[in-house]
Specification:
Elements (H helix, E strand, L loop, with lengths): L22 E12 L2 H9 L7 H19 L10 E9 L4 E12 L4 H19 L7 E11 L6 E2 L9
Length: about 160
């Protein structure tokens, strides 16, 4: 497999997807923000001075998915059918877990949109809570699964089911 974002001379390029068929494409990404137990408790109880941290982070993640083509140089701007961003408060590991699921019907996948949604949701949590916990870490942003297109389905090995 070769890198698709470079031409034969090594120059960066946007991949030509004009010959591809439109198919339903889905991508799921996850990540987390680790923090002090007190910070996590404030988020869980809705006691952060700036407001509803997870509500704002959800909207930020959705907006980021929609803007991915403007942020990542070689990404195609896509018409998204659906973006969902969910959170899980994991008290045992002192973190907010983030999951984004993005769907489109098109010629190219939505992995970058899902990864961008998780990243920006995590950064938004950090931004809203940094006054009380500058030591937070946005971490483990990864693609969990993708389907659709010529390359088919991918599922990351060892991923635990998302808490419902």
């Amino acid at each position: 497999m070769e890198f698709t974002h470079f031409d034969a001379r090594g120059n960066a390029r946007m991949v030509d997807v004009s010959g591809k068929d439109n198919t339903r494409r889905v991508a799921v990404a996850r990540g987390a923000v680790t923090m002090k137990p007190e910070t996590l408790a404030k988020i869980a109880r809705g006691k952060v001075a700036k407001g509803d941290v997870l509500g704002v982070a959800r909207v930020a993640g959705i907006m980021a998915a929609k803007k991915t083509g403007e942020l990542i140089p070689m990404c195609h701007p896509l018409l998204l059918d659906s973006v969902e961003v969910d959170f899980n408060i994991n008290e045992a590991e002192q973190k907010v877990e983030i999951e984004a699921r993005v769907v489109t019907t098109g010629k190219t996948g939505v992995e970058m949109e899902a990864l961008t949604a998780v990243s920006v949701a995590g950064l938004t949590i950090y931004d809203m809570c940094k006054a009380v916990d500058k030591g937070m870490t946005v971490e483990a942003v990864r693609l969990v699964e993708k389907s659709g297109g010529k390359s088919g389905t991918y599922r990351r090995e060892g991923e635990k089911p998302w808490p419902k």
